[in-house]
Amino acid sequence: MPIVPFAHAEKVADRFLDLLRRHSINPANGSMLEGELLSLVELLDVTKTPSLATGARKAALLAAAAGVHDMAAKILAVEGIDEFDQFVAHLGLIAGKKLDVASLGQLAPGQYNDDTGRKMVELYIAALVSHFASEISLDHPTNSKGDNPDVMFTYEPGIENHPPLRWALAIKTIRSKQGQTIFERIAEGSRQIDSPQCKANVGMVVINTRDALDHAKLYGTLMPDLQAAQTALPNEIQGLINAAAKDRDVSDWELIFAGRTVRPVLWLRQTVVRIADGLGNEVPTALKAMVADHVNGKVHFVGAGIAGLMNHFMQIVLSGVPGRAGQFPS
After folding, report:
1. 148/139 Cα distance (integer angstroms)
2. Residue 29 pLDDT
3. How confident is the model at residue 3 (pLDDT cuts 50, 70, 90)?
4. Cα(198)–Cα(212) distance, rounded to whole angstroms?
């Protein structure tokens, strides 16, 4: 997993700020969003003078900086697509009214009423699918009635007997670790996909675990190596998956997948951990992945492929550079 130097991340963030200015999007002075956008500058100061931030403050700063960098890279890499005006509508929330609670990055928990943060994850996922799909459509960030999936796109897998289909992704951010609540959010996403208002042929539910993960525990444990870190985070996710499935009748799941909603259920996981480098140093590292859960049933072959592509672009798009013929984005 690539480690991004802070100085490089700051350049990406500067380009993102320039993009916002070009679209007349400016967070208010003193807002949480402004603090996030300035976090990389502050973090560079901390690397020079470590005493400026320690403990929980340093952890929060790292998560904010890594989250801003990751989101900025994903957005910059798709700035040239035809549908980018829809992205601008979501980005406009950065200058919205809920500035005291609004957040941009996805590597730390948001507040319970952080509607902007929940909309930003829709933007993030739309940016990922833009690298392999067409006709991207985002549900409007402020005029949404909540009965339509959040992201839709057309995907042609290029496989015999698999024609292009219109796909829908219903994205649900969970805060609770209670199995029944998680199950109900999955069912809610399924109802959106199966709604008559949804014009997609098929769809999947995406669970954003940002607000349900124990980020403090993950960051507070110094991981001996990357392998240990990559085991700890999936264990957290598996706990949420197990909670949703505990004592659950198979028929409950079959109702969810009886219409246009297909397996797998996708689980978005992102956090910041500390990894020992073997030389007595700690390396803050952002871990992120899209996990596909089969939910004890047969997965949709193309859906599983879409999950893999989303995960792939999560990992490689770190500089905000668009792809071109013969070259992946980066």
Report:
1. 7
2. 66
3. low
4. 28
Q: Decide if 10 contacts 38 (C-beta within 8 A).
A: no
* Six-digit token string for 45: 């100061």
From CA 71, how far away is CA 105, in angstroms rounded? 6
Rounded to 10 degrees, what is the CA torsion of 125, 302, 236, 313?
Answer: -40
- Residue 261's nearest CA partner among 326, 203, 207, 308 is 203
Is the pLDDT confidence value at 228 over 50?
Answer: yes
d(CA 74, CA 83): 15
- Residues 278-292 have pLDDT tens digits of 888 888 888 898 999
Ordered DSSP codes for 111-132: PTT-HHHHHHHHHHHHHHHTTT
- Name the residue among 122, 66, 69, 134 with its Cα closest to residue 93: 122
Q: Give the separation between CA 122 and CA 114, rounded to whole angstroms.
A: 14
For residues 253 and 296, what is the distance between their CA atoms, to the nearest angstrom? 9
Q: What share of the chain is helix, strand, coil (3-state, %, to 5)?
A: 45, 15, 35
The residue among 116 and 239 whose pLDDT is bigger is 239
pLDDT band at residue 244 under the 50/70/90 scheme: very high
Q: How far apart are CA 215 and CA 228, in angstroms?
A: 15
The distance of Cα 305 from the centroid of its chain, to the nearest Å, equals: 18
Alpha-carbon distance 19 to 26, whole Å?
10
Report the distance separating Cα 229 and Cα 302, nearest Å.
29
State how beta strands 282-293 and 265-276 pair. antiparallel
Coil, strand or helix at 137: strand
